[in-house]
Amino acid sequence: MDGGSPMITSLRGRLFAGLTAIILLTGIIGGLFAHRWAFNEAIEMQDSVLIQIAGLVQTGSLAGGRDLHGVDEDAEVWLIDQAATAHDTEYESRLWKLKDGFALATRKGQPIRVLMQTRHDGTRFAVAQRTSMRDEIASDMAFRTVLPIAALIPCLLLVTAIVVARSLQPVVRLAGDLDGRRADDMTPLPTGQMPSELHPFIASINGLLQRMRGLMEQQRSFVADAAHELRTPIAALSLQVENLDPVDLPLRARDRVAALRQGVGRIRHLLDQLLALAREEAGKADAATMPVVKLDDIAKEVVAELLPEATNRGVDLGFAHVDSAMVRGDPMMIAAVVRNLLDNAMRFTPRNGRIDAYVYRGSDAAILQIDDCGPGVAADEIGRIFEPFFRGQRPEGDGSGLGLSIVKRIVDRLGGAIEAVNLAEGGLTGLRVLIRLPAANF
Ligand SMILES: Nc1ncnc2c1ncn2[C@@H]1O[C@H](COP(=O)(O)OP(=O)(O)OP(=O)(O)O)[C@@H](O)[C@H]1O
Ligand SMILES: [Mg+2]
């Protein structure tokens, strides 16, 4: 639809608006007809009362008098006898000119309905009733007929709203299911509980998911194969560079060799990260089926592995707190997480700075925390550092921008959560990365 179009785009809104219109229209038309019918019926009924009274007067059961108290008090019916009105008023003289039967007349300025009759002896009488009174009674009866219809309309609208909302619930649930999925979760949607109308739709989505799974698999194996194939020539190149002894080279060539060595190192790192990514994506296993490992032991191993490099850089790397904490996961993947975080921390921590690692055990989570004392991440970038290939405004060293995205994928797969916050205490800066993994219970 074009912007600003007043069309209702939600299916629920459209159904409800349509059904509301039908209910209101039916109610109004039905109500009008019922009202008219009941009104006419009431008028006829009152005419038949006048006929009955006239019958009684004819048979002499009712004496001629001006008032008929007790006959129909509410309806205000009265009898006008010609014999009893010797001194004709103008109104009565006009009355006696009317023929037998029903007629409309006026009495004291008010319209009345009269039934004229002639007795066998030739005397005449009229049974009269005020028109306004008749209408009032008829309206009252008609209103009572319409009342249940009017009361039914809001109930119907409510029931319609509930039925529409409940009927569309499966669609909302389906959307929720899809939204709540991990980006790489390609398992087909179940059709079991869904209404049959949705089955073709779900089948199409499942077909699409299957095609996407195939494409992702192709892409993953391409990246893995390419990285793997490139490893051997790069390793050979790296060896060649190492074999160039700088001592035998003229000064200008030494600089070039150093640049070459750095470049080759960068490519090797990128290939390693790409392989780690491909390996992570290939790991289909669900966290629940993975082995239980000690997070603290893995963290200690990685710290020990990186200690020589830290010492080289003049960085004080160590544990500030270690609890024994069990988690489920592939030890290689968890080691990759710790290594990537420490690698980042080391890159940004200045000489004589420190990096503190923590392993805590919570009630249902194991927590790994790495604090560095680098510059931290700019506020507008901190939300993006987990994106693949994002390196920010101030990238440090030779990185690919893949480290944190690999870490996040691994943590997601293990059912955990990752968070990065800038530290700013007493003029000191730094980045704190917190990883929570579900604790494994025995
Ligand atoms: N400890 C940190 N302090 C400051 N900035 C950081 C820190 N860790 C990550 N960043 C920022 O986040 C970006 C992304 O980090 P990530 O680990 O994904 O990539 P990388 O370290 O640049 O490359 P790679 O990890 O592949 O070698 C970094 O380039 C850097 O800008
Ligand atoms: Mg990194």
Features:
442 residues, alpha+beta, Heat Shock Protein 90, 3 domains, four-stranded antiparallel β-sheet, 8 helices, 11 strands, rod-shaped, disordered N terminus, binds adenosine-5'-triphosphate
Q: How would you sum up this structure, described in words?
A:
The relative contact order is 0.06. The N terminus is likely disordered. The chain folds into 3 domains: 139 residues, no CATH class; 103 residues, Helix Hairpins (Orthogonal Bundle); 152 residues, Heat Shock Protein 90 (2-Layer Sandwich). The strands form 3 sheets. The protein has a 5-stranded mixed beta sheet, with helices on one face. A 4-stranded antiparallel beta sheet has the order 1-4-3-2. It has 442 residues and is an alpha+beta fold. It starts with 10 loop residues before the first helix and ends with a strand. Helices cover 52% and strands 17% of the residues. The chain is built from 8 helices and 11 strands. Adenosine-5'-triphosphate (ATP) binds next to helix 5, helix 7 and helix 8.
